[in-house]
């Protein structure tokens, strides 16, 4: 990744009309329908944007959408890149750097995750308060990282307190259950064994997933305030573990999607 490549990606999007977005949004598995509400949308498919990684997993539609939402200029990633698809972590987080270069001032992230905390139920949402990186690498581990920000990026409060508190208030007002906790990122794509779920619980995780953490690290590198919410799609109880399938995960995410959309729209309105 070079500044020149980032500039080319950004210039392409600006030439398509992606003019000074204020807010970036990353939509996770089964959560893509927020884009239906965008006014005057302009779309850019990932495989048309110079230097973007190519989208592979077919249930991710893979495009950037720009337009107005709640009166704000937004740029939305419908579908993201995962380490498990074979990209390196620099590729996975490339779009975050591009959205930052386009001018976003805040970033909202969603994902689908498994519930490790036994008080949390399938279909609940969880506000991420902190995370554990178990992907075995960093998107900041490259030679000229210093040209883009601090190499030794501070991670003492990686999730913006103000947006977190606003989301909690919105959830309360809307009568939406919003759990809070620690998200652990694993590589995947295989799901966890019973022994691994026991381990993750002991480590202090409340939810587990295969994304988000690299994006959050890069957002912190760029000093870009972020907030992230998981949809808990399955209950990971090692003493009563049923086989999960990805179709079911997508189905639960889809059923929860209207509540996620509500949270994000209300937040976008007031930030
Ligand atoms: N692990 C377990 N369950 C999940 C995951 C995961 O990574 N993502 C969604 N549900």
From TrEMBL:
Domain Nucleoside phosphorylase stretches: 22-269
InterPro entries from the UniProt entry: Nucleoside_phosphorylase_d, Nucleoside_phosphorylase_sf, Pur_Nuc_Pase_Ino/Guo-sp, Purine_phosphorylase
Gene Ontology biological-process annotations: nucleoside metabolic process
GO (cellular component) term, any one: cytoplasm
Gene3D superfamilies with a match to the protein in the record: Nucleoside phosphorylase domain
Gene Ontology MF term list: purine-nucleoside phosphorylase activity
Pathway named in the protein's UniProt entry: Purine metabolism; purine nucleoside salvage
Its EC number(s): 2.4.2.1
CDD domains linked to this entry: PNP-EcPNPII_like
One Pfam entry name: PNP_UDP_1
Enzyme class: transferase
Keywords of this entry: Glycosyltransferase, Transferase
Stored SUPFAM superfamilies: Purine and uridine phosphorylases
NCBIfam families: PNPH (TIGR01700), PNPH-PUNA-XAPA (TIGR01697), PRK08202.1 (NF006054)
Family note: Belongs to the PNP/MTAP phosphorylase family.
Its job: The purine nucleoside phosphorylases catalyze the phosphorolytic breakdown of the N-glycosidic bond in the beta-(deoxy)ribonucleoside molecules, with the formation of the corresponding free purine bases and pentose-1-phosphate.
PANTHER family the record matches: METHYLTHIOADENOSINE/PURINE NUCLEOSIDE PHOSPHORYLASE, PURINE NUCLEOSIDE PHOSPHORYLASE-RELATED
Name of this chain's protein: Purine nucleoside phosphorylase
């Amino acid at each position: 990744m070079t500044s020149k490549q980032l500039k080319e990606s950004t210039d392409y999007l600006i030439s398509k009309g992606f003019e000074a977005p204020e807010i970036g949004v990353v939509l996770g598995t089964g959560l893509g329908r927020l884009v239906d509400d965008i006014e005057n949308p302009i779309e850019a498919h990932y495989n048309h944007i110079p230097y973007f990684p190519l989208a592979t997993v077919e249930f991710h539609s893979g495009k950037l959408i720009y337009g107005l939402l709640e009166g704000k200029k937004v740029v939305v990633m419908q579908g993201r890149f995962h380490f498990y698809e074979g990209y390196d972590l620099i590729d996975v987080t490339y779009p975050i750097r591009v959205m930052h270069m386009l001018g976003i001032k805040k970033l909202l992230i969603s994902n689908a995750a498994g519930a490790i905390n036994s008080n949390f139920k399938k279909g609940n949402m969880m506000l991420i308060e902190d995370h554990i990186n178990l992907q075995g690498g960093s998107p900041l581990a490259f030679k000229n990282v210093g040209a883009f920000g601090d190499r030794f990026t501070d991670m003492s409060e990686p999730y913006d307190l103000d947006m977190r508190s606003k989301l909690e208030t919105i959830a309360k007002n809307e009568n939406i259950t919003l759990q809070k906790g620690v998200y652990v990122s694993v590589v995947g794509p295989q799901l966890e064994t019973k022994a691994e779920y026991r381990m993750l619980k002991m480590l202090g995780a409340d939810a587990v997933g295969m994304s988000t953490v690299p994006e959050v690290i890069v957002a912190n590198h760029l000093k870009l305030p972020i907030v992230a919410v998981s949809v808990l799609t399955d209950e990971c109880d090692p003493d009563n573990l049923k086989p999960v399938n990805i179709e079911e995960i997508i189905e639960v995410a889809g059923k929860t999607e209207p509540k996620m959309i509500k949270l994000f729209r209300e937040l976008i309105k007031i930030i």
